[in-house]
UniProtKB/TrEMBL annotation:
Residues 1-22 form the signal peptide. One of its GO terms (molecular function) is hydrolase activity, hydrolyzing O-glycosyl compounds. Belongs to the glycosyl hydrolase 43 family. GO terms for biological process: carbohydrate metabolic process. PANTHER family: BETA-XYLOSIDASE, ENDO-ARABINASE. Keywords: Glycosidase, Hydrolase, Signal. The record marks 150 as: Important for catalytic activity, responsible for pKa modulation of the active site Glu and correct orientation of both the proton donor and substrate. The lineage of its organism: Eukaryota, Fungi, Dikarya, Ascomycota, Pezizomycotina. SUPFAM superfamilies: Arabinanase/levansucrase/invertase. The active site is at residues 34, 213. InterPro entries: Glyco_hydro_43, Glyco_hydro_beta-prop_sf, Glycosyl_Hydrlase_43. This is Glycosyl hydrolases family 43.
Amino acid sequence: MIGYLPLAASLFTILFSRSVHADAKRALDTNFPDPCVIKTDAGYYAFGTAGNGVNIQVARSDDFSSWDLLSDTDALPGPFPDWVASEPNTWAPDVIKRGDGKYVMYFSASSSEDNSKHCVGAATSSSITGPYTPEDDPLACRLDKGGAIDADGFDDGGDLYVVYKVDGNSLNGDGTMHPTPIMLQAVNEDGVTPNGDPVQLLDRTDADGPVVEAPSLKKSGGTYFLTFSSNMYDTPQYDVSYATASSVKGPYTKADEPLLVSGDPSDVGSLTAPGGSDFSVDESKIVFHAFKNGHDINDGRAMYAADINLSGDTISIV
Ligand SMILES: *[C@@H]1O[C@H](CO)[C@@H](O)[C@H](O)[C@H]1NC(C)=O
């Protein structure tokens, strides 16, 4: 009998690890692009780009598995400060909780100075679902470089940062590929006041197509993990890639393999154009989007959720 035990044990391991290995799961069956996730005492909250009639969408989950769109809630209803265009066209929110218990939302909105470009702003609320009140001044604009989008807050053991993308490809109509650097901006403990000049963490190379964008930053075991998307968001080449560094300011080394690409599995079939990923604060989860109808962007981008493992220099879906 003894001889059979290791066999039984390894069979059990195979079956059990298969049954617990979960693919990414469709979290919301609606258009909810560029999601972020935050865990609170009242459950998980996700925020997404303008859609379903509101500027910033909100969804909630008790268990990270079953999600509800809070369809009557606009987390960022306005009024907006002067730097925001009359049509705010708000994109890619990220929410953090700062030391005094208030929530800070980073968002991108069209610039009143040039509404073909976006700037990154911050807004605060004492309630997770808002309404968030925008700051009078943007955090980053870079209009001469194409604008600034895709802000993500990061707490490095009490030092707060915002990473964002300089939206250089908004200038690509001139026939050249402009830089789309991912920048790191230190902010004061209020989360909204820039502290010093931003530093560049990464930029596109030919392997990334026209862009790197949608950064999210997390530290685990002494390693900084920077996820980002490359290629164009409305094509199947869009992905979730990442780079690692031993210092928050880099240098960052791109991983050999993306974390998520078209064709990867989910509970509703293979993903197409996964991107816009965001880490949970406890570094065990991500949310991201992919084409809702599975083949093109015409029905929008649905939110997906996955458990991850950060180990050494590697991120894996578990
Ligand atoms: C994460 O991956 C490492 C390396 O494969 C493994 O040793 C560790 O047990 C994993 N952790 C979790 C929580 O799955």
